């Protein structure tokens, strides 16, 4: 329960989490009798635990407000926020075109360093309540977006052969993730594996129809046509992903 409480306060960094939300997060729909006292006991225990690992701090990180509690923490102290800041910095450089005038390998290395901060499942595998679960989904989406940006930059720098193994694994782990499919098709085509690239498309199309009942997006269908016709734009990087900023989330 202490882990869930800490995780809930962490994902709401520096923002007050109302008492009602904390109760729901910790006990769900079956809170104990005198739940207010039970929550206060958990908060007090968390304060003691944090104080034991930071004895030099004069003030507890866990702050009390009229409506609830918050955790005081600097962005640089939380790896999830540090990761997000690094990725956003690189994304802005890509959107502005700055990456074109500098060594792409620097951005690639920065992204890989940021992704190295992922050392296991979100919250160490802790399920938590709604707040933790929603945050966990958001963190995983952010990681996938960072991976997609990394693979875009790798392709843009001519690293299609180098990234094929990890890009293939990303596609297999996320069979409904269209951007990974697009990137894998491009990498295979650039590696002179046109048939494999088309097979990836056909399997992805079948997966979408079977699981969701939908067709691939116009962008993915356009990429298939370009591969079939050996469109020169695929090698120049001006089609289906060459314009990096067009594929970055807002």
UniProtKB/TrEMBL annotation:
Query: SMART domains recorded for this chain?
Result: BTAD (SM01043)
Which residues, as ranges, make up the DNA-binding region of this protein? Answer: 1-73
| Keyword Transcription in record | yes
One GO BP annotation of this record: phosphorelay signal transduction system
What UniProt keywords are attached to this protein's entry? Answer: DNA-binding, Transcription, Transcription regulation
Which Gene Ontology MF annotations are present? Answer: DNA binding
Q: What is the top-level taxon of the source organism?
A: Bacteria
Q: Where is the OmpR/PhoB-type domain?
A: 1-73
What single Pfam family name could you report for this chain, choosing any that match? Trans_reg_C
Looking up PANTHER family in the UniProt record yields: TRANSCRIPTIONAL REGULATOR REDD (PTHR35807:SF1), TRANSCRIPTIONAL REGULATOR REDD-RELATED (PTHR35807)
Q: Which family does it belong to?
A: Belongs to the AfsR/DnrI/RedD regulatory family.
In Swiss-Prot or TrEMBL terms, this protein is called DNA-binding SARP family transcriptional activator
Species annotation: Actinocrispum wychmicini
């Amino acid at each position: 329960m202490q882990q869930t409480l800490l995780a809930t306060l962490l994902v709401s960094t520096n923002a007050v989490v109302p008492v009602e939300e904390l109760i729901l997060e910790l006990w769900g729909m079956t809170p104990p009798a005198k739940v207010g006292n039970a929550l206060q006991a958990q908060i007090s225990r968390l304060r003691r635990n944090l104080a034991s690992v930071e004895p030099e701090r004069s003030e507890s990180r866990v702050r009390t407000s009229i409506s609830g509690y918050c955790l005081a923490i600097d962005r640089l102290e939380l790896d999830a926020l540090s990761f997000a800041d690094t990725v956003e910095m690189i994304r802005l450089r890509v959107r502005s075109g700055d990456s074109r005038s500098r060594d792409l390998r620097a951005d690639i290395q920065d992204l890989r360093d940021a992704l190295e901060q992922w050392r296991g499942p979100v919250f160490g595998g802790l399920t938590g309540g709604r707040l933790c679960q929603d945050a966990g989904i958001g963190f995983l989406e952010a990681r996938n977006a960072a991976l997609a940006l990394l693979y875009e930059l790798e392709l843009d720098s001519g690293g299609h052969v180098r990234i094929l193994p990890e890009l293939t694994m990303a596609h297999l782990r996320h069979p409904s993730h269209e951007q990974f499919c697009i990137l894998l098709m491009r990498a295979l085509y650039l590696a002179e594996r046109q048939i494999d690239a088309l097979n990836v498309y056909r399997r992805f199309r079948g997966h979408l129809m079977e699981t969701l009942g939908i067709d691939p997006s116009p962008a993915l269908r356009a990429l298939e046509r370009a591969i079939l016709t050996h469109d020169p734009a695929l090698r120049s990087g001006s089609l289906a992903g060459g314009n990096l900023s067009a594929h970055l989330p807002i």
